[in-house]
Amino acid sequence: MSILKPLAVAAALVVAAPAAEAQSALNEILGQGVLKVGTTGDWNPMTMRDPASGGYVGYDIDVMTQLAADLGVEVEFVATDWRTLVNGVVSGAYHITGSASISPARAKAAGYSISYFSLATVPLIRDADAARFSDWEDLNAPGVKVAATLGTTQEQQVKAFFPEAEHVIVEAPARDWQEVLAGRADAHITSNVEAYRLVEQYPELMIVPVSRARARTPVAMLMAQDDQVWINYVNTWITLQKEAGFFDELAAKWQLANNS
């Protein structure tokens, strides 16, 4: 987009920055010609991995492909999981992640971009259990098993929202909703974004008709905490793309406009 031409020029100038400033990931990306992006591939419609081809599609994938294009480099998607998402940024396994919920726990170790999207949490159950669960408190009871995926924001939410319930924590590549489908858990919680896709894909699942969604949370990209040069560049890019309508177009493409 033409609005990003000044930003592309500014990025090119970074290559010639003094040695004292050459520690930023931005210099490495421009010097090597590759943007490495950590992505889980298991969050529909944000990032989905095709087991056959190994390729990725989704909202996050489109965002990062555009970021790489505006940087004038190739994009390389690096497989990760929610438990190791922050560690990958800290260790330098990738320069940036796709969308991640902003949380104080993650912010202790990694830096965030500004937010460009928000989501909220809802519970899902089997349709056959509709009579058992009609609101949040119905799930917070002894004998109720609520699942979450290790390392996700929902892992902490399950423990906070349902202290009386039994917590079923599974590790990737297993997913919490699979526990519900298999009958090993009564419910799980996830973002409203993923919830609508799950009930479309699996008619036996349903969203509990809760009085309100909980934990509205902004999402952003994770980067190295001490790399302000790189964080500043990405924040500038997000701001310009917001003004250009890029994120609105992607929300419409992936049917997120009414879910955020």
Please state roughly what percent of the residues sit in beta strands, choosing from under 5%, 5-15%, 15-25%, 25-35%, 35-45% or over 45%: 25-35%
Which CATH architecture of the largest domain would you pick?
A: 3-Layer(aba) Sandwich
CATH class of the largest domain: Alpha Beta
CATH superfamily membership of the largest domain:
Periplasmic binding protein-like II
Number-wise, the strands total: 14
**Number of folding domains?**
2
Give me the secondary-structure category.
alpha/beta
**Overall form:** elongated
CATH topology of the largest domain: D-Maltodextrin-Binding Protein, domain 2
User: Helical residue percent?
Assistant: 25-40%
CA distance, first residue to last residue: 25 Å
Word description of this protein:
It is a single chain. The chain is built from 11 helices and 14 strands. The protein is α/β, with parallel strands linked by helices and 260 residues long. It folds into 2 domains: 2-117 and 217-253, 3-Layer(aba) Sandwich (D-Maltodextrin-Binding Protein, domain 2), CATH 3.40.190.10; 119-215, Periplasmic binding protein-like II (D-Maltodextrin-Binding Protein, domain 2, 3-Layer(aba) Sandwich). Strand 3 and strand 4 form a beta hairpin. It is elongated. It starts with a helix and ends in a 7-residue tail after the last helix. Mean pLDDT is 91; it is low at 15-20.
